[in-house]
Amino acid sequence: MSLPSSTLSSTITLSTKTFSNSNFISAGHPQSSAPMTTCSSITSSNSSSSTKKYTSERIKLLLKQQTSTYTVIKNEKTNSSLCWKVFGFPAKKSEANGEYEKIEGFTSCQTCNQTFAYTPSSGTRNMLAHQCVKNLTNNNNKRTTSSSSSTQPKLNSMMNIFKKVKLNEKEIDTVKDLTCSWICRDMRSFKIIEDNGLKQLLQEFVILGSKYGEFDVANALRGADTMSNHIYDLANEYRAILKDILQEPLESGCICVSPDLWSDNHKKIPYLGITATFVTKQFEYKIVDLCCKPFLGDDHSGKSLLIAIQKALEPFGIYDLNKLSFMSDRGANLIKALEDYETLYCFPHRINNVLKRAFFQLPVHRIKTNPPATTQPSASTTSVNNLNDTDESSSEDEEILQPTKRIRKKKQTKKQSSSTNVNDPMKLDLKDLPVVAREIIETIKQCKKLVRYIKKNGLNKTIQENGGVALQQSTVVRWLSLINLLESLVTSYEQTKRILNNRRQQAKLNKIDEYTLKQLICLLKPFKHVLQLVQKGDSPSLYMVLPMTLTLKKALSSFDELLKYQTTTTKTTDDKENSSEQGSDEESELLVESEGFKILRLRVLELFNLMFELDLRHYTATLLHPCYRQLRGCSNSERDEVHLYVREEMKRILYHSKQQQQDVSPEIKKRKVQISFLQEYEDDNDLNSPSINDKSSGSEDYSYIPLQADELTRYLSMELDKSKLSSNPLEFWKDYQGAFPILSVLARQIHCIPASSAAVERCFSSSGFIVNERRACLSPDQLDNIIVIRSVKNLQK
Fold it and tell me: Model pTM?
């Protein structure tokens, strides 16, 4: 039915007037809705009528001003384009049923309501160029490529939310064929396909493919030179990240640095490696490799080494070495370099030195000509004058080096000196040892020769086929390897004997007595357990040194104690021991200590007492572990001195806290509990205050009288459920930092120090893996960059 011309002209006039004034007719005016419906019926399609009634600008205004009537609905169709995460279709609420009906021919942004004309054939070019879509793309790129610690967990979480698809067999076979061809052609490890870094890289290509469709990957990949240059930039960014991470622990004195020297096996380039262990404000124990830089000193003297250490730490904002603690081995140049700083020496290194000397595995005269293996293997080019002073003293003085913070003991050295002057264990030669003891030393040498023969002739596989285990070789540097050698030989003694008889080589086993091997294992097993426990690097370990030292001394004091140790550790150890070891424990009661074995046991004990002396920080670390706070096994005088040392350290922390408070605005003061304790310690100069009935050491050097119920006293007297305590002491101090604000700071400073320098040794092991035969020409500076990037990535896990 056609409309009168007057009606049609009025409708057009009304529509024109409405658009020009932007005064939109509401649904409450029935006279205006009818003409629009009539106009809609005239058009040939809904699309054309929508275009006539709406424009992009009008829809944008409607979406902003009439939110109850107009909205943007999502595109329900499956779309691969990223723009549909931002854009949708404008829609108007229907008067009849209250549902939103899509306005055809347009698409609108859900964020800013920007509207574009859209048809399925027009494409998404305008939407992709919109700023809101670009912002979303940039945010996605940041989530997947950012190297900061705050975004790294997001990357890991994103790996679990990608769409799961099921590929068909043909597609899976294609991927497997390409993977196997790559592994075989380029001689890669099979495990490389499980590498997380490779998965992240491939996932990024999938994201790019969803954005651009199929494209040549050469457009995204860059050449070797470009990637090499980018590693320099990335390493500098990561050093800046480390600098920020280390700032708070540095100011709190909660960083310990382990420096050492190393050289690669190919070009013999000397490197300086530095590893830092620190405790965060959240009481988390962290390890990070700061550098593995080429050592550019003029020589390998202590002075040159100290300069190199200072320069290596500067990129991380560490300029004052007095804020650090140091953990080091006893290399002559390291001792000289760190003599003015608070340094603790590696406990496992010391045990290794004691055992090597006790069993005459390293002649004394060799130390004078060669620098220590743990310090610089490639120092053959160093002139003798450069290390003349330190080398001469290292042969003997290094062996009896005193700790930095020595604990005072009662004078009991007169009786010992009269007995040790006759046969000084440090100067005793192998020829001066009784014959029965020399036979045991000879047994060790024969065991090494036998294992070399077995390995050289490929007989380990035959031993395993006959029910034994492969015999393991030993090195002088790692004494644990000798213990493993003896244990493997005892386990496979019968199989080895049978194989040697078949080859008519039984003479190689004639000088090796199985009974002697079992006694040697019995003697060395306590050292094996101690070394394995102390060298764990994922949690504090300094507190173990004192109880482990007392355990070793007790086990070596008599043969009965040694046997008792075997039975107790067999019941409590979590290590997987060989079946023969369990049998040897059952027959350990039948063993009788031979005369030669007794001589060696007492020699090991005497050398251990002579060559290793505990530092006050060893005692303090044990005291600050809630499970060992009573210092059992220590004398009363030792406990008194440790308590006095802890209180002096608390006074030092309190003094620094007061200085910091003067420079800090009141807004930063958050913990009221800590402030009250600081005020309590301000009155510690009142000598008339009632004192604790502590046992006094009687020393005139310590005149400090502790206040009643100070933090240390309350910590020592508090009742704890030991079954709920963790082996990690930092978990306790995290929970009780409010009750013990000063002691908790001291706990952070002490427990950041490891018991060994194993962390920097692991850094060198990683460096040796990187500079392999295929990459022998890798730039030394690039190795340093790789170590830093790898270390930060591990820190962010």
Answer: 0.68
